[in-house]
Amino acid sequence: MAAIGHVAVGIAVARARRWDWRHALAFSALALLPDVDVIAFVLRIPYSAPFGHRGATHSFAFAALCGLAAWAWRRDSKLAWLVGLTVATHPLLDALTDGGLGVACFWPVSDERFFFPWQPLPVAPIGQHMLSARGGFVVAVEALAFLPLWLYALWPRKGFQRQCRPGVPSKPPITDRH
Fold first, then answer.
1. How far apart are CA 125 and CA 11, in angstroms?
2. Per-residue confidence at 170, pLDDT binned at 50, 70, 90?
3. Nearest partner of 50 among 109, 123, 117, 94, judged by Cα
4. Helix axes 147-154, 3-17, angle to 10 degrees
5. Residues in Cβ contact with 66 at an 8 Å cutoff, skipping those fewer than 6 apart
6. pLDDT digits (tens, 9 = 90+) for 74-116
7. pLDDT of 128 over the 80 cut
8. Residue 148, SS3?
9. Where do the structural domains in the chain lie, given as residue ranges?
């Protein structure tokens, strides 16, 4: 899957929590975090290995560890849940793609990889192959599929100006001029 859907999830979660660009960036990074396993290609770890692409870092155990790390860092249970759930969306979305070997959602209990029966998202080409006609097609499909999340995440809220620029009134102050 290309990053468009994962980033849309991260920004939408940030909007639900508290909107500002730092939260949007942080939750987008968390939504993308399981793909840190692409380093396996450089290290010549086989795709099908537990630490290969879509392996251990795409598991619910990894998502739970991320949530626990967030709780240990901030002692905020709501943040911990949001972090864990945001990371857990990654393997779920990847399981909706139509290529690869599947997702090791239940690692370390099982190395078996899964797809959902319905796979509406085309798998993204890896690396420089993303800059191809196939990559453009994948981006277009994801942009359309995740449009509702993008709209939710980026649609201005009432009082948006006040949220983005604290201390700046949205209306000029009322003055008494007689």
1. 24
2. low
3. 109
4. 30
5. 30, 33, 83, 84, 87
6. 999 999 999 999 999 999 999 999 999 999 999 999 999 999 9
7. yes
8. helix
9. 3-164
Whether pTM exceeds 0.90: no
Using the structure block, give the residue that is written with the tokens 């191809």. 132
3-state helix/strand/coil string of 22-61? HHHHHHHHHHHHHHHHHHHHHCCCCCCCCCCCCCHHHCHH
Q: Which H helix or E strand runs over 13? A: helix 3-17
Identify the bridge partners of residue 97 per DSSP, sorted by sequence position.
Answer: 121
The amino acid sitting at 143 is A
User: For the stretch 27-58, what's the b/e string if a residue is b when 16 or more beta carbons lie within 10 angstroms of its beta carbon?
Assistant: bbebbbbbbebeebeeeebeeeeeebbbbbbb
30, two tokens: 């968390």
